[in-house]
């Protein structure tokens, strides 16, 4: 069993955050430079997401976003500027996270088409 760390590079700043595969204990997504978008889909669990800056307070030039397309359970969220409920039916989408973990999000909103 293993933790898997997924990072971006200068050409890839778009992540599809999906459920664990067989043999994975957890997933860790690290946005490094540029604007990062993390698309989180239903069934995601035991996953941590880290944006570009450590504060998630619009302090850097980067703009990091989580788009929540289905219910998920995250271990921690750090350095995220916007968490957006993007499901077509947002009333049925939930996000839970470990109470003893970090929740570093500056703004929470609904998707607007």
How would you describe this structure in keywords?
113 residues; mainly beta; 50% strand
Describe the structure.
The protein is mainly β. Helix content is 0%, strand content 50%. The chain contains no helices and nine strands. Strands 1, 2, 3, 4, 5, 6, 7, 8 and 9 form a nine-stranded parallel beta sheet that branches. The radius of gyration is 13 Å and the shape is globular. The N and C termini lie far apart (40 Å). The mean pLDDT is 80.
* Gyration radius, rounded: 13 Å
| Poorly predicted tracts of residues | none
- Any idea what the shape is? globular
What multimeric state do the chains show?
A: single chain
What average pLDDT do the residues reach?
80
Q: Helix/strand-derived class?
A: mainly beta
In what range is the share of β-strand residues?
over 45%
Got a strand count?
Answer: 9
Q: Strand-and-helix sequence, N→C?
A: EEEEEEEEE
Give a quick summary of the entry.
This protein is mainly β and 113 residues long.
Q: What is the fold's blueprint, element by element?
A:
Blueprint (H helix, E strand, L loop, with lengths): L1 E6 L6 E4 L6 E7 L6 E4 L3 E7 L14 E4 L3 E14 L9 E3 L5 E8 L3
Parallel strand pairs: 1-3, 2-4, 3-5, 4-6, 5-7, 6-7, 7-8, 7-9
């Amino acid at each position: 069993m293993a933790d898997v760390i997924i990072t971006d590079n200068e050409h890839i700043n778009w992540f599809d955050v999906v459920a664990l595969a067989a043999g994975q204990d957890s997933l860790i997504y690290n946005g490094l430079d540029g604007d990062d978008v993390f698309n989180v889909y239903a069934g995601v669990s035991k996953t941590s997401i880290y944006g570009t800056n450590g504060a998630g307070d619009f302090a850097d030039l980067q703009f990091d976003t989580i788009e929540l397309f289905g219910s998920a359970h995250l271990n921690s969220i750090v350095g995220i500027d916007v968490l957006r409920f993007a499901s077509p039916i947002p009333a049925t989408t939930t996000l839970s996270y470990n109470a003893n973990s970090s929740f570093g999000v500056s703004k929470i909103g609904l998707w607007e088409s």
